[in-house]
Amino acid sequence: MEELRWGVLAPGKIAHTFVTGLQGLPGAKLAAVGSRSLDRAKEFALQHGAPRAYGSYEDLARDEEVDVIYVSNPHNYHKEATILCLENGRAVLCEKPFAVSAAEAQQMVDAARRNKVFLMEAMWTRFLPAWQQVRSWIDDGLIGDVRLMNATFGFRSGWDPGSRLLNPDLAGGGLLDVGVYVTSAAYWVTRRDPVDVVSEGHIGETGVDEQAAFILKYDDGSLATLACGVRTSMQHVVLIYGTDGWIEVPHMFWNTTRAVLHRGEEEIVFAEPHISNGYEYQAKEVARCMSEGRLESAILPLDETVRVMKTLDTIRGQLGLVYPFEE
Ligand SMILES: NC(=O)c1ccc[n+]([C@@H]2O[C@H](COP(=O)([O-])OP(=O)(O)OC[C@H]3O[C@@H](n4cnc5c(N)ncnc54)[C@H](OP(=O)(O)O)[C@@H]3O)[C@@H](O)[C@H]2O)c1
Which residues have CB under 8 Å from 316's CB, separation 6+? Predict the structure, then answer.
């Protein structure tokens, strides 16, 4: 497939960043945008050069001249929007967290398989060249056996109880917003489900997790100690410790251009600028998979996305966080 025609569903904050990333990608074409508001769709289309703007998600999903739709509304609407696109035969790249629960994620995956359409979670970090390098270092045995991983991702959002980050009606809280990054990173490093999970957190005034820490334990005794939050400024660093060395993915690990391998006194640095802003690598993977006729990515298989959600379900259960729409 020489050209891949992208549609954007819900043109909010991250959608602007995503389409900016697309601009650096040969063959990627922004074809259409769909919003609940036609004015918002038109404004986005004008700003980013999309030829068509729709005032409903249904019209976007029905556009035969769109190959793949990027779903970027708040988490609790991902399932409905994604299934709408899939049922209309459109491939989907759905923002993280893929869904609010593993049960929702499974329904989305089932819809993709039933309709034989490509689907992938937009866990963009995993596709960055530095994170691909991290995986190769581990596969090549350069740090020996992985025994411990430590990752934190938290920031202090402004106090806006109605915002997507703090509003329980929009599946707010740190775990689903940024905890998904550290949990998905643990899956990328260990390639396994944990056998045990222990979590603690603080549920704030609005009823969502403002911060949380959790330990994942694996069948060989290795551990991942992870933390996240939306009201605490944390370092966004991942450290992976093995029997023969360790890997450091520096601050802003989620969009890093750099990773460092330490073996004794030796230090090997991977550093490579992004083609665009970092969001293009996941889109590149979508294009590659679709041009090869694949229905999912081997780098981020759908079953793994569901398993990550299952682990987030477990953590959320331990935090005692149930969203109003789940009661
Ligand atoms: N990959 C990343 O780096 C990254 C970064 C930030 C966020 N995200 C993810 O992307 C998704 C959107 O985040 P965002 O910060 O871009 O959100 P946002 O700007 O607040 O909203 C995005 C769009 O969602 C729709 N929307 C907003 N509030 C809504 C509501 N109350 N009910 C129904 N629809 C609503 C709107 O689309 P319409 O125009 O159609 O109304 C809006 O334009 C989240 O799942 C988030 O986790 C990913």
Answer: 175, 176, 209, 322
**282 Cβ inside 6 Å of ligand 1:** no
pLDDT tens across 89-104, in order? 999 999 999 999 999 9
Atom number of ligand 1 nearest to Cα 176: 47
Q: Tell me, yes or no, whether 70 and 212 share the same domain.
A: no
Q: Is 79 in the pocket of ligand 1 (CB under 6 A)?
A: no
Residue in the block written with tokens 């993280």: 96
Check whether 238 has a pLDDT greater than 60.
yes
Judge if the beta carbon of residue 106 lies within 6 A of ligand 1.
Answer: no
Give the N- to C-terminal CA distance of the chain in Å, as an integer. Answer: 45
Distance 176 CA to ligand 1 centre (A): 13
Task: Provide the pLDDT for residue 2.
Answer: 79
Identify the pLDDT of residue 24: 87
pLDDT at 1 over 80: no
SS3 82: helix
Q: Which domain holds residue 201?
A: 126-278+308-326
- CATH classification of the domain holding 107: 3.40.50.720
Q: What sign results for the dihedral spanned by CA atoms 10, 14, 20, 21?
A: negative
